[in-house]
Every structure is written in C-alpha cells, then in structure tokens.
Design goal:
alpha+beta, Mannose-Binding Protein A, Chain A, 2 domains, twelve-stranded mixed β-sheet, seven-stranded mixed β-sheet, 7 helices, 34% strand, binds 2-acetamido-2-deoxy-beta-D-glucopyranose
C-alpha cells in the first residue's frame, strides 16, 4: 500500500454502523400459501424471512404496508430451548434433575436454573446496553417481563457461558435479591425456514394460540405493529423473503485465493463493521470446517495498520490479542475464530482456511 492510499484512508475513516444490516429483506406482493411463498423465496433469494433480533425486526417493519405477510417461521412439533435475545444456546446450567416439570420458561435460583410455568409472576433481570444488568422488582409473567425488558432495556438476560452465569449470580447476591428470577430462557417448537437457530420471537399478546388446532405458520400483521400471529398455512398472503448478506464458503483457500473467489462469485471478502455484523459473522462461521475463517482484513506492512479490503479503516474491533500496533514481518491477513468468543486473529496469508464472502455493495 502506498502513501496515497494512506491519505485516502484517513479521509474516509467513518464508521457507518446504520448501513450494517445483516440481511436484505424483500416484500413480495403476490398472494401465496406459506409453502408456495417458501419455494418462491428459495428460488429468487435465500429463503422466507428469518428475523434474528429487534434490529432485524425494525428493518422488516420499514417495508411493511397494510398487508398481512408470511415470515419464515413454522411449527415443527419438537420443543427446543432458546434465549429470548436470539443468542444461540451453547451453555446450560440446569440444577440436577432439571428441567423436569414440562414448563416452558426458566428461572435462576442460587446460580442454577429450573424450569417454571411461564404464567407465574416473578421479578426478573433485563440486559441493558454495555453488557449491563438491570433488576426489575415487579412481579410479571415471563412474557410480560420479556416485553418490559424489550421496551425499556434490551431483552430478558441471556446467560451464554459460565462467566456470565457467575456475573449474574453475583449481581443477584449484591442486590440482595431473594427467590426465583426469570431469565431469558424459554422453549417452543417453532423453526425458521432457513434452519437458522434464531430464537427471537415477536408474538402478539396471547399468541401463538393454535386456534382450531390448525395454526402452524407465522404471519406478521401491520394492524398490531408488525407483531406475529400463528395462522393456517394454506391461507394466501403476501410475504417477505430475505437474502443473506454474508455467506460462508467451505473451501480451504489462501487469503488471496479467497479474495479472488469472493470477487468473482459474490461481492467481496466480508468486512465486520459493527457488533451486529460480528453477531451475524458468528452465526455464519458455526458451520465452518477450519478452526478460523478469513475476513477481508489485511495489514499494511509499511504503515503497520489494519484495513478492510474494500478500503475502510477498522473502527469496530474484536481482536483476540490486540496486534493492531504490531508489525508482522510476513504478509498477514485477519481471520475470525470459529470457537470460543470468535475473536479476530492474524494469520500468514498462505494459511488455507474457509472464508466469508459478502453479498452486497
Ligand atoms: C479443510 O480443512 C479442514 C481442516 O484441515 C478439513 O477438515 C476439511 O475437510 C477441509 N475441507 C476441504 C473442502 O478440503
Ligand atoms: C493471545 O495471548 C495469550 C496470552 O498472551 C496467548 O496465550 C494466546 O495464545 C494468544 N492468542 C493468539 C491467537 O495469538
């Protein structure tokens, strides 16, 4: 990289986080059954819409008209545990013999988890910005607690690993909270059309209710501000498709080969500009066959700075060890680890890894 490019980089050192949407949503104004809509989306885009979190939901709402629309959620009949926030469930801390009551929600008691009927009134802990926790000293059922957290904070708290479990337990002890508190863990038998593990749900109050025992698909309704309702799958509605913006390629290539592949077949090697995109990248790399996957991160040996190959400076950072100031002697590129916290690490560019392409300009 030469001196000229260095000056260009300084001029464009702006992070436009608002542009970092992970999926592109498309409203299709043709009436189809859920299954026909699914087929259409899989042919023209990636799949019927998956909604991972409140950011995605706000993005979808932007395209909403007065029409009821299908989204990609369908009932399978097999229950699974999920986090309300949409975080993948990689860690569970059930007390011995739990879950055992057939209930659909979970509480924390002395640092361990118990299943508990969702309709009970309990106090609860919300997650707030900057990994903060907020105790809400009001008795609410699980669903109302979830709505409260989403309205005033972020969501009901997720406990993603042992460290977070200890933090939450300490928070509960420090605040002298006694008795059970709701955490964001719940189970249901709904599954996204694209098989993603997303556990985000945005049901309207009292839904899903499986009226008449035939409601196995989910619609989004403008008359209830985009909240969801379960309904008969053969009804004819318009629908929302999505296209993934990041795609994992499970080939083992060097960084330069990966760059060429992405530019020929998609748009570019992926850049991760924000925490939302980091989350999306974390979802995508779960299927990888190598220990890390290439990103479009590159280090200039002359200037000793890291940059994204599409020309942006690195604003959002997620390094395993902060090597951003260390000048490597060989050509170095950046990859994201597939396990653990999935932080970034640098590799010689001759390493052969899976990689993530982006599908958008
Ligand atoms: C890529 O490398 C990994 C780890 O060495 C290996 O398990 C996998 O089979 C390789 N994939 C291909 C497509 O060669
Ligand atoms: C990061 O630093 C720690 C502690 O110095 C070290 O054990 C670890 O191997 C480093 N990770 C990488 C990927 O270099």
């Amino acid at each position: 990289m030469d001196q000229t490019l260095y000056f260009i980089l300084i001029l464009i050192a702006l992070c436009s986080v608002s542009e970092c949407v992970q999926r592109q949503y498309y409203f299709i104004n043709v009436q189809k059954s859920w299954t026909e809509a699914q087929r259409y989306c899989r042919e023209k885009y990636t799949d019927l819409a998956t909604v991972d979190n409140m950011n995605d939901m706000n993005e979808v709402k932007k395209g909403m008209t007065y029409e009821r629309v299908w989204i990609g959620l369908q009932k399978t009949g097999v229950d699974k545990w999920h986090w309300s926030s949409g975080d993948p469930v990689l860690y569970l801390n059930w007390a011995t013999g739990q879950p055992n009551s057939g209930a659909y929600c979970a509480v924390m008691r002395n640092g361990q988890w118990y299943d508990y009927s969702c309709s009970n009134g309990l106090t609860f802990v919300c997650s707030s910005s900057n990994n903060g926790l907020v105790f809400v000293n009001q008795m609410k059922n699980w669903r109302d607690a979830q709505s409260y957290c989403r309205q005033y904070h972020i969501d009901l708290v997720s406990v993603r690993n042992q460290n977070e479990n200890q933090q939450l337990q300490k928070f509960i002890n420090d605040n002298h909270i006694s008795g059970d508190v709701w955490i964001g863990l719940f189970r249901d038998s709904w599954q996204w059309s694209d098989q993603s593990d997303s556990s985000f749900r945005y049901w309207y109050t009292g839904e899903p209710n499986n009226a008449g025992g035939i409601e196995n698909c989910a619609e989004m309704r403008p008359d209830i501000h985009g909240q969801w309702n379960d309904i008969y799958c053969n009804n004819q509605y318009s629908f929302v498709c999505h296209e993934d913006k990041l795609i994992l390629i499970k080939e083992n290539l060097t960084w330069s080969e990966a760059l060429r592949y992405c530019r020929q077949n998609h748009v570019d090697l992926a850049a991760v500009h924000s925490e939302e995109m980091q989350l999306e990248a974390m979802n995508v790399v779960q299927q990888a066959s190598t220990e890390a996957v290439w990103l479009g991160l590159r280090q200039s040996r002359i200037l000793c700075i890291w940059f994204w190959v599409r020309g942006e400076t690195v604003c959002h950072q997620n390094w395993e060890n902060d090597t951003s100031e260390v000048c490597e002697s060989a050509e170095t590129s950046g990859a994201v680890q597939c396990g653990g916290d999935q932080r970034w690490i640098s590799f010689p560019e001759t390493e052969k890894l899976n990689f993530i392409c982006s599908n958008y300009e």
